[in-house]
Amino acid sequence: MEISRDQPLVVAARRAISEVLHEDRNVRGFPAVSDASNFVSAGVPAVIIGPGNLNMAHKPDEYVPVNEVTNAARIYAATALKLPNITLSDSIQQHRSVPDSDSKGHFYSASIPLRALTGGSAGRQRS
After folding, report:
1. Among residues 16, 18, 8, which one has the least CA distance to residue 78?
2. Is 3.40.50.720 the CATH number for 1-127?
């Protein structure tokens, strides 16, 4: 999956990260599996952002420092506030290949996925 650095979601996310963490992060590929490729395949832009250290994922002593979870929540909110004004119905109409409900009538959110890794702390110190 690949996304342009100029895509509004990428620009908004980078600005939010800079605002919350007071530093710039490099835009790079994510060396693991995520659901983002499903969104991109359907024409919905996606970035992967989130707390933690990928080297600690899926291990018996896996953890994420609380301050990183808090910062991730702030980044998600700031990213959403920095996105261009697009309504939910506009987003669904623009990406018609994304169903808004299944055969049983369960509604799917058309929100843009903003989860995964921003780099996290490399140390084992817990907050």
Report:
1. 16
2. no
Instruction: Scan for tokens 């490099």, then name that residue.
Output: 26
Residue 3's Cβ-count burial label (10 Å; 0-12, 13-18, 19+) is middle
| pTM (two decimals) | 0.64
Q: Are 42 and 49 in contact (CB under 8 A)?
A: no
Contact at 8 Å (CB) between 20 and 75?
Answer: yes
Domain residue spans of the chain = 1-127
Structure tokens belonging to residue 46: 């996606």
- At 18-51, the pLDDT tens digits run 999 999 888 888 888 888 888 888 888 899 999 9
What is the Rg, in whole angstroms, of the alpha carbon atoms belonging to the chain?
Answer: 16
Tokens of 67: 């301050």
